[in-house]
Amino acid sequence: MTDTRQAVVSARGLTKAYRLPAEVILAVNGVDLDIHEGEFVSLMGPSGSGKTTLLDLVGCLDSVSSGTLTVLGADVSRAREDELVAVRRGRIGFVFQEFLLLPELTALENVQLPAAFARAPISRAAALEFLDRVGLAERANHLPKQLSGGERQRVAIARALTTSGRLLLADEPTGNLDSRNSQLVFETFRRLNREDGLTVVVATHDEECGLMAGRCVRLRDGRVVA
Amino acid sequence: MNSLRIALRVLLRKKVRSLLTMGGVAIAVAVLVSLLAFDAGYQDGLRTDIDRMGYQVLVTAKGCPYEAATLMMKGGGGLSYMEDEVYRQIVGDERIQEIAPQLMATVFDSASGAGGGAITLYVGIDEAYFRLKPWLAFRSGGWFSSDDADEVIMGYEAAELEQRSIGDQVYIPSADRVLTVVGILERTGTQDDGVSFMPLRRVQEDFGLPGKMSGIGIRLKDIGQMSAFEEDLYDVPSIQVVSMAQVKGTILNLMSSARVLASSIATVAVIVAVIGVMNTILVSVFERTRQIGVMKAMGASRFDVFRIVWTETALISLFGGALGVVLALAGGRLVEHAVRSLLPYAPTGRLVAVSPHLVAAAMAGAVVTGLVAGIYPAWRASSMKPVEAIRSAE
Q1: In chain A, what are the domain boundaries?
Q2: Chain B residues whose beta carbon lies within 8 Å of the beta carbon of residue A60
Q3: Residue A61 touches chain B, beta carbons under 8 Å
Q4: What ipTM score was computed for the predicted complex, to two decimals?
Q5: pLDDT at B113
Q6: Cβ contacts (< 8 Å) between B299 and chain A: which residues?
């Protein structure tokens, strides 16, 4: 059955090649993929399958080697660095395996940061609301080192929410968390997807969590296999 | 959340490193400010001292003219003497506005001072000396009763030191003579404050120097006639003529060697500080590679990242510069004390003159230099590709 919703991400023959002195590595190899608005998609596969590279391309963090890629309506197949910044700024939120919060800023200030870069600063009250959505409003003034791993990841999700009006990308978001916190993080993604209609794409090798998504895209050796 | 706040937090997070780097900047700025302040203060002081001598030309007996001039500025013995016939030859010159003969003599009095004795400088003068230095004024008393009276006029500090007042008797052991204090001068801030003045003839007789003079100070009606006047005096035997402008130039020339050395040290300090700032910020950038990658992933442009890192260097330089100025102000007295103890002649007044202009220039210089030092680290940070930066430690 054809999905009639608008495609947030559309890839055709998408390839990312890394040229080494002795060989060319195709991290993503001819991927065709459509992700529609409001979908919760998990990219699954073993290490080296290309899920992180695919996520980087979809997030406009890296340039495409060949094929076509449209993200949020913009053709980024041959986009320069500044054009990629323009697409992702204020519209795509990222969550990383190691949280990557700025250690010198409080949870609240970390949440405010992406909006500041997007030249659309958000108030303290608005940032607190984002933290509240991940259940951490009371930890707003804590530095990352004063938070547990699960709490840090939830702050990272709140931070991503401020800019992910339409698309939130998470790369192994539970890789550094215990099973309870992993469950909590995925439940947060699912709630945001269902309640707010947010498009969520998660790269993970955690089968249990990955299956919580609405659709699983399986990768192997840079290709979509299922 | 602006660049300034982020940069400030980054620096505060690594307090010791930030403080050490600021310390390097502070030392460089302190050395530079002290050097420039000393240069300005010394020149000002020298100019004031020379202006306060009241004359433009000094005639002395043959010898080293600069030594003679310096001794007369500083006050001291060991001068060569010339015959007062020279004075009579010159005094009639129409180009002269004022001419004041002087005869210096020093006396060591074992009963004075803090137990170990003290040297008193006596200068024989006539009324022309006061006309040459119109700012000399009596705090109490007045001029000698005659031109060979056994009387003394004491400079402000000389009187204070010996706790003298009008009418006191002063004994000169070497001349076995008692003088009466008839005048005490107001403070002038010059070497005259430490001198005891006697009638010229009295000094000539009491110190066994009849018909002698140690110097003749001359002020001309027209400074433009200086060269011609000096030229004419070359014909007078056994004397030499030195203009105070020459003295000033010569002393400053002597100082220039020391200035070159100090400037070299200051330059090295500045280079070390620049490298220190560059190194600190570069290390900080490398340590934060993944965070910089995340900032870029969140939408930070190259300019945003450049501005954050550059702000860090500006803050280090600004605070380091401010600390350096404080150090220079606090250490000014120390530098002054050291210079006075090392140099044979140092002008009166403040030797280290830290002006608001100098402070502003030093701060601006520190920030500009810091910003130059920050260009490379900021460029490195802003050039990072987000993916490579984020995955750098994986």
Answers
A1: 37-64+79-224
A2: none
A3: yes
A4: 0.86
A5: 53
A6: 85, 88-90, 114, 117-118, 163
